[in-house]
Amino acid sequence: MTSTIDYGNLMHRAMRGLIQEVLTDVQTNGLPGEHHFFITFDTMHPDVEIADWLSDRYPGEMTVVIQNWFADLNVTDEGFTVTLNFGDSPETLYIPYDAIQTFVDPSVEFGLRFETQDEDDDQPTIEVDEAPMDEMVEPDDGKDDGPHEAEVVSLDKFRK
């Protein structure tokens, strides 16, 4: 038995489990209402699988939008696979939960941010942000008129 309860890692697993549960529901039932997701992930994570041109273009991190057009969403215990359209070029991405840095659903002003502290302290910092995101810009005009180009957006202005 350990001498302390590792709340950081417990929260880390719980929040990634929440993302898995949400994505599993979307896989089964589709996106409800106005829900959509901005997911920022570490493109250099060893288990991320994306096209070479995407990792070259976005070294370090990338944000994808799951909204009007996505295909082949497959959710597992370790991560998820999704096909998105980048300039009329469908690309399949595999994103492990451990690579996710932020998960935001601006339709309900909900967001999760996963950060690690300094190298001296290997405990993750988990922030649950339900503050208003009034400045969030919708990635399209809201019309669901067929496939849309995937958008990579920067969430830097929302970081504290």
The CA-CA distance between the termini, in Å, is 36 Å
Structural class: alpha+beta
Q: Helix-strand pattern, N to C?
A: HEHEEEEEEE
Strand order of the largest sheet: 2-1-6-7-8
Strand segment tally: 8
- Which outline best applies? globular
What is the arithmetic mean of pLDDT? 79
Radius of gyration: 16 Å
Helix content estimate: 10-25%
Contiguous helical run count: 2
The major beta sheet can be summarized as: 5 strands, antiparallel
**How much of the polypeptide forms β-strand, as a percent range?**
25-35%
Tell me what the structure shows:
There is one protein chain. The protein is an alpha+beta fold and 160 residues long. β6 and β7 form a beta hairpin. The longest helix is centred in the N-terminal third of the chain and has 23 residues. The chain contains 2 helices and 8 strands.
Structural features:
single chain; 160 residues; 2 helices
Kindly summarize this structure in a few lines.
The chain has helices at residues 7-29, 52-57; strands at residues 37-42, 61-66, 71-75, 79-85, 90-96, 100-105, 110-116, 124-129. With 160 residues, it is an alpha+beta fold.
Topology:
Blueprint: H1 7-29, E1 37-42, H2 52-57, E2 61-66, E3 71-75, E4 79-85, E5 90-96, E6 100-105, E7 110-116, E8 124-129
Antiparallel strand pairs: 1-2, 1-6, 3-4, 4-5, 6-7, 7-8
